[in-house]
Each structure stands twice: as C-alpha cells, then as structure tokens.
Design goal:
This protein is about 55% helix and about 10% strand. It is mostly helical. The protein is globular, with a radius of gyration of 14 Å.
Length: about 120
C-alpha cells in the first residue's frame, strides 16, 4: 500500500522546490544534515544542483516502504512550517488526511500513531 498518494507526492514535491526558492527552505542543508549526501558532495552543490540531487532522491523513494518514505519526512514537515497558510497548504493537509496522515507538533502522524519525530531543517 502506498504511504503517500501520487497526488500528495506531486504537490509536496512542488511545494518543497518552491519553498527552497522563496521561503528559506534549505534543500542542500537538509540533504547534508540528514545524511542523504556526504559532506564533500554537499559542499559542491549550489542551487539547482541541490534541487537536482533532491529530485534523484525523491524519485528513488519506494513509496510503499515506511523506511524509504521517512527520508523525506523532514522536508515535508519543514515546508508546511515555512509556507504561509493558503490554498496549497490547505490542499496538502487535505491530501495527507485522505492518505490517513496529518502533521502535528513537528511530526507526520498516521491518523492513529506516529510515523516519525523530526528535528527542524
């Protein structure tokens, strides 16, 4: 069973890229801070290169495995913290709810239970 629907993934991905450009989300810092890229590789990444690396990681996720999805949870939580309330955040909350998930107190939670606690990016 897919943890995040295709519609949820598409919106979340676009919001993450948009927040990186406009709301101070640091994809490069998140990739490095969560061990998704090595320090030497991250050092060389700027702007589009960091977004391209994030895109590669995103497309490699097995959306049926919790352990795989957990790698992007910090980005999902952070984008909701940084993006001003509006139609896109409301839509993402709605889609997450349809997937049986919600973000509460810095965690992505199943409607019953916690998926993962995450520190802020």
């Amino acid at each position: 069973m897919t943890i995040l629907s295709e519609e949820t993934r598409a919106l979340a991905f676009e919001m993450i890229l948009y927040a990186d450009r406009n709301y101070g989300l640091k994809i490069k810092g998140g990739l490095q801070g969560y061990g998704l890229v090595s320090g030497s590789k991250a050092h060389k990444m700027m702007g589009d290169r960091a977004r391209d690396e994030f895109r590669k990681i995103w497309t490699a996720i097995d959306w049926n495995r919790r352990e795989s999805v957990i790698t992007i949870v910090p980005f999902l939580i952070r984008v909701m913290e940084l993006t001003p309330p509006g139609p896109s955040t409301q839509r993402l909350e709605h889609l997450l709810f349809k997937d049986g998930l919600r973000i509460r107190k810095g965690e992505l939670r199943r409607i019953v239970g916690v998926i993962r606690e995450t520190p802020s990016l």
